[in-house]
Design a protein that fits this description.
Blueprint: E1 2-4, E2 9-11, E3 16-19, E4 23-27, E5 37-38, E6 58-62, E7 66-71, E8 81-86, H1 103-115
Parallel strand pairs: 3-8
Antiparallel strand pairs: 1-2, 4-6, 5-7, 7-8
Bound molecules: copper (II) ion.
Copper (II) ion binds next to loops.
Length: 120
């Protein structure tokens, strides 16, 4: 969770992560004023939502394969989002980007999906 990366303001780094089912991700509060939480409708049905507090470093174990959209709540509309692909994600479900998203968040998700070569 960063105020600035090499090419973005208010961003997660990395913005896209591919992990195996059962892996644990630690969200680092490298800069202050950010959090990490799931976005409703953007994670597998069988998985549970999670929500870190502002400035909280959380560890999340991803047991359910699929694709997850993560946001920083205060900077969501500014596009502070990341994508985590858990297990073998052959394709991003059509519903992934169907929810209400700001243009910046949508653009970043599209970039993240493209960087992962997941197809859509
Ligand atoms: Cu933030």
């Amino acid at each position: 969770m960063l105020n600035r990366t090499d090419d973005a303001r208010m961003a997660f780094e990395p913005a896209f992560l591919e992990i195996a089912a059962g892996d644990t991700v630690r969200f680092l509060a490298s800069d202050r004023g950010h959090n990490a939480e799931t976005i409703d409708g953007m994670f597998p049905d069988a998985a549970s939502a999670f929500k870190g507090d502002i400035n909280e470093e959380i560890e999340v174990t991803f047991d359910v394969s699929g694709i997850y959209g993560i946001k920083c709540k205060p900077h969501f509309t500014m596009g502070m989002v990341m994508t985590i692909a858990v297990g073998d994600v052959a394709e991003v479900p059509a519903s992934f980007l169907e929810g209400r998203l700001s243009n910046k968040a949508r653009n970043r998700f599209e970039e993240q999906i493209a960087s992962g070569n997941l197809g859509q």
